[in-house]
Amino acid sequence: MPFERTSVDDSTMAQGQSAVTTAGQNGERTRTYRVTLTDGNETKRELVSDTITVPPVTEVTSVGTYVEPAAPPPAAAPGGCDPNYADACVPIASDVDCAGGKGNGPAYFDGVARVVGRDIYKLDGDGDGWACNG
């Protein structure tokens, strides 16, 4: 007897992933017949019993539904400093450029700051985790 397949949502597994969590297994059926022979040839066959001796095991596939929640935006730091930068006050503006660089503002940052969030102003040109350090 062939096994069936089913799927279940799994909120602990990442969305887009799936895994077989219960392996399917075919079952066994036992059929008993009463056979009538005439002159050594089968002339009649009658089903006497039909028993499932080993039931099939349904294959279960878990399908991931977990979506990691988006990180909340960083809270504004006191004094008008952007919370994506630390160790110095990078101003909050529509665009900030390193003072003495090629940017056109409208705001400028004169100093070096550690990038602790997203480098939203692209002040870390060399990717070392520090803004406006050369």
From TrEMBL:
Residues 1-67 form the G5 domain. Gene3D superfamilies: Resuscitation-promoting factor rpfb. This is G5 domain-containing protein. Keywords: Signal. Residues 9-32 have a biased composition (Polar residues). Residues 1-32 are annotated as: Disordered. It comes from Microbacterium laevaniformans. SMART domains: G5. Transmembrane segments: none annotated. The keyword tRNA-binding does not apply.
